[in-house]
Each structure stands twice: as structure tokens, then as C-alpha cells.
């Protein structure tokens, strides 16, 4: 009897959720939503007191390890009510930095925080790796359940990664791996997948030394009011900016240049109320990739990526400009990309939604507006429900709105879709799109409720998308 009650509850819940779904009928609707969302996302405020790291013994010679000096400065700043921990001109070598509440880590113009290449300088913490929870090396800058934290200033964060440090752990020869070197992430990655499928408690999934799972660069975890502005971020071991389960995230005027393996620029994961603007990405993987967890972990936690604004950013190299997925099992909704510019022969796609039936989840209400694209390789708009292995959780993609898109030197396709017959991409709208230099106008399979208005490819009207 209990089983049937649960099934009935699931059906009622499904009907209720479906009843709430209403696709946009005009760009005025998402533009109004964006205006309201911007009022909710606020910059944290800090006490006007500075803590200079050199007062705590730091030496900016690029050789002296300053981990303890950073720790002491941050802890004192936090204990006394907050303020700025200031990094002056110089190169300051350090291990992992833990940010505490009410602390603004401020990099003065001409300063560099250079991170150690020694894995022993990164303690084991509770983290996520490719959307899976585990105990692994601390991110280079990490916070857990903190509030009002920031990284600001015109200095540089240098992850100090290269073909001989961190990158070769990915196991690819083009990033320095060969069989004479110890270290390859593949066995650990497989083991982490196994633990997740078994639903082994996350704090018992212990990695670190001998497992070769690279840390991410900046990862505030379960934190509120995270702000980042003006800094240059380069040479990350893996993902660059990766807030996880955070709320109220504001990123502005940040530059990310990092061409290692899996060097995504900005990966907000299962976050709510996120605004990134006026920033620059030149990366070895997706420029911006919105995520909500992989497979069992993403579904069990059940936190979608929600209310994200990507505004006035510039994307160069990368697998995708604005990407949703692939670790998107928790779903995504209300994602707004407006006024962005993309241009690189090495940029594969402008807008990409990638997921699979091992993920599941619903991706809905994606607004891609006023976008200028120079060159790209594969597709201006790409839907993929068959990314990585299949499973038993068919995903949903619906209410995707693309308006005012210009492409000068298109790649293979204008629109490329790879979906399930049982779950077609639904309510796809494209208005005022002009794309030139495209080899093939489109390649699609399962789409439903498609609206095309004033769309041209190579000067010819595009009036339908049919298999």
C-alpha cells in the first residue's frame, strides 16, 4: 500500500510541476525577470580595516612559502570583524588559502599570489570533483559555509600549473602525460563514479595523495555572498572559478586565461542568484559552464542551477561560450545570457546545452539575447542529450529563447540538435538571427514547438527545422 501511495504522490507532484511550466511568448518577459533578479544580487560590504600580509611575515620574493602568513592574516581579520587582507606588490608563493567570513582578499596592482606545485600544500577537504562529492585536495582558494567573502583587486592569481605540474595528471599526452610518469586520474575517476553509484557517504570517498584528482582553483562551498572583481586568473590545475551550492554570487571584470585540461572558466554549480558581467574568458575548456551535479549526487541533492545572469562577457578559445551541463542532474532554470561577444576559430559552440540520460533533470527557461559571434567551429546553438553514457533518466530541455544573434564566420551548423524522440527539445524560439559563413544550415532530430522569425543563414531565410 505504501508503495502505491508513493507512486500516486510522485504523479501528483509531476502534474503540479508541469502545470507551473509556461514558455515565454515575448522577450519582454525574461527581460523583466532579469531586471528583478539584478535587484536581489548584492555586493557584500566589508569593514574598512586592512590587514597587510607582510605584517604577518609574508615575503614577496616568489620563493618563500607564505601559507602561514595568509592563514594568520585571514584568521585575525575574521576574528576582529572582517576587512581586507591586502597582498602588496610582489610575488607571494603559498599553499591553499582558506577564506573566512567577512574577509576580502585584496590583490594590489602588481601583486601575484603564486600557488605551490606541491600537493602536500593542499589539505584534504570536503569538495566536488566533476560534480561528484568527495574528500580531496583543497581548491587553491577554498571556503566552506562562510558568508561575505571576496577576492578583489588588479593583481594576479597564478595556479602555477603546466605540462610538468598538475596538468599531466589528466592522462593525456598532449598535456605532458607519459607512462614513465607517476600519476593519472583515470583509476580515481572510475572509483569515484563507483562510490557515487553505490551512494557511499561522501565523506567516506577519500582521495588525495596517490589518486591524482586535480584540485579546482577557486571554490566557495555552501557559502553566501561571494564577490570577485578585477583579478586575473591563470594556469589553473582544473576548473577555474567553481562556487558550489552558493547563493548570491557576483563576479565582475575578471579575466581568466588558462589553457590546461578541463580548464573551464566559470562553473557555478547548483548555485542560486548568480551574476557574472564584464569578464573575459580564454580557456582550454568551456568558457562558462553552468552545472548542478552529476548523476546520483546531482539528483539526490536536488539543487538546480537557478537565476544566473551572464552579461557583457567576452569569450575566446573554449569548447563552448555559454554552456549548460554536462553535470546538470539537478536541473537548471532561469539562465539569462545577454550582450555577450564571442570570436575564435577554437570556440566550438556559442550556446550549448549538454546532458544525458544518466543525468536526467530539467533544463528550462534559457534566454540568449543580443549576442555577437565572430567565428566558431561546430554550431551556434547546440542541444545534446547523448553526452557521455546513457542511463534511465531521460532529460528535459524546454523554453530556449535565442534573439538578436549575429554570426560573421559561422562553422559547420547554425543549429545542431541531438535529442530523444520521447523527450524532444520543446519550445525553441529564434528571432532576428543573421548567420553567415555556415556550411550547413542545420542538423536536427527531435524538436517540438519551434518558432523562427527573421532568421537567415548565408543570406537565405531559415523557416523550418526538420529532421
TrEMBL record:
Pfam families: Glyco_hydro_28, Pect-lyase_RHGA_epim. GO terms for molecular function: lyase activity; polygalacturonase activity. The keyword Lipid metabolism does not apply. Residues 53-105 form the Rhamnogalacturonase A/B/Epimerase-like pectate lyase domain. InterPro entries: GH28_Enzymes, Glyco_hydro_28, PbH1, Pectin_lyas_fold, Pectin_lyase_fold/virulence, RHGA/B-epi-like_pectate_lyase. GO terms for biological process: carbohydrate metabolic process. Keywords: Glycosidase, Hydrolase, Lyase, Signal. Residues 1-19 form the signal peptide. Belongs to the glycosyl hydrolase 28 family. This is Pectate lyase superfamily protein. It comes from Epilithonimonas hungarica.
Amino acid at each position: 500500500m505504501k508503495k502505491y501511495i508513493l507512486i500516486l504522490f510522485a504523479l501528483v507532484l509531476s502534474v503540479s510541476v508541469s502545470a507551473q511550466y509556461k514558455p515565454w511568448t515575448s522577450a519582454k518577459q525574461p527581460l523583466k525577470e532579469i531586471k528583478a533578479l539584478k535587484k536581489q544580487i548584492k555586493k557584500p560590504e566589508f569593514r574598512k580595516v586592512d590587514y597587510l600580509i607582510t605584517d604577518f611575515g609574508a615575503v614577496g620574493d616568489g620563493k618563500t612559502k607564505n601559507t602561514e602568513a595568509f592563514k594568520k592574516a585571514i584568521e585575525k581579520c575574521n576574528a576582529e570583524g572582517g576587512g581586507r587582507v591586502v597582498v602588496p606588490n610582489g610575488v607571494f608563493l603559498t599553499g591553499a588559502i582558506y577564506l573566512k567570513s567577512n574577509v576580502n582578499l585584496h590583490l594590489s596592482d602588481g601583486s601575484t599570489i603564486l600557488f605551490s606545485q606541491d600537493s602536500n600544500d593542499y589539505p584534504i577537504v570536503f569538495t566536488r570533483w566533476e560534480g561528484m562529492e568527495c574528500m580531496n585536495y583543497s581548491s587553491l582558494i577554498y571556503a566552506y559555509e562562510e558568508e561575505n567573502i571576496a577576492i578583489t583587486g588588479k593583481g594576479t592569481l597564478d595556479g602555477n600549473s603546466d605540462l610538468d605540474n598538475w596538468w599531466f595528471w589528466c592522462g593525456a599526452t598532449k598535456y605532458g602525460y607519459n607512462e614513465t610518469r607517476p600519476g593519472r586520474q583515470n583509476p580515481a575517476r572510475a572509483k569515484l563514479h563507483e562510490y557515487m553509484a553505490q551512494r557511499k557517504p561522501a565523506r567516506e570517498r577519500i582521495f588525495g595523495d596517490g589518486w591524482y584528482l586535480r584540485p579546482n582553483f577557486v571554490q566557495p562551498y555552501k557559502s553566501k555572498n561571494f564577490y570577485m572583481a578585477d583579478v586575473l586568473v591563470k594556469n589553473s590545475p582544473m576548473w577555474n572559478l567553481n562556487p558550489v551550492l552558493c547563493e548570491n554570487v557576483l563576479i565582475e571584470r575578471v579575466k581568466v586565461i588558462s589553457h590546461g585540461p578541463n580548464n573551464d572558466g566559470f562553473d557555478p554549480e547548483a548555485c542560486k542568484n548568480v551574476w557574472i558581467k564584464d569578464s573575459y574568458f580564454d580557456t582550454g575548456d568551456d568558457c562558462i559552464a553552468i552545472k548542478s551535479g552529476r548523476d546520483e549526487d546531482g539528483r539526490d541533492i536536488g539543487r538546480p542551477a537557478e537565476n544566473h545572469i551572464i552579461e557583457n562577457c567576452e569569450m575566446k578559445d573554449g569548447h563552448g561560450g555559454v554552456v549548460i551541463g554536462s553535470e546538470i542532474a539537478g536541473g537548471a532554470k532561469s539562465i539569462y545570457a545577454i550582450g555577450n561577444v564571442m570570436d575564435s576559430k577554437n570556440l566550438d559552440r556559442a550556446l550549448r546545452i549538454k546532458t544525458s540520460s544518466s543525468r536526467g533533470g530539467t533544463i528550462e527557461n534559457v534566454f540568449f539575447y543580443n549576442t555577437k559571434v565572430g567565428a566558431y567551429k561546430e554550431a551556434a546553438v547546440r542541444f545534446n542529450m547523448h553526452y557521455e553514457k546513457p542511463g534511465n533518466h531521460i532529460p528535459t530541455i524546454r523554453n530556449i529563447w535565442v534573439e538578436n544573434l549575429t554570426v560573421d564566420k559561422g562553422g559547420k551548423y547554425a543549429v545542431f540538435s541531438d535529442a530523444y524522440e520521447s523527450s524532444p527539445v520543446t519550445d525553441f524560439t529564434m528571432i532576428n538571427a543573421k548567420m553567415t559563413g555556415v556550411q550547413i544550415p542545420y542538423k536536427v532530430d527531435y524538436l517540438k514547438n519551434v518558432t523562427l522569425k527573421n532568421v537567415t543563414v548565408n543570406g537565405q531565410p531559415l523557416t523550418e527545422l526538420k529532421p
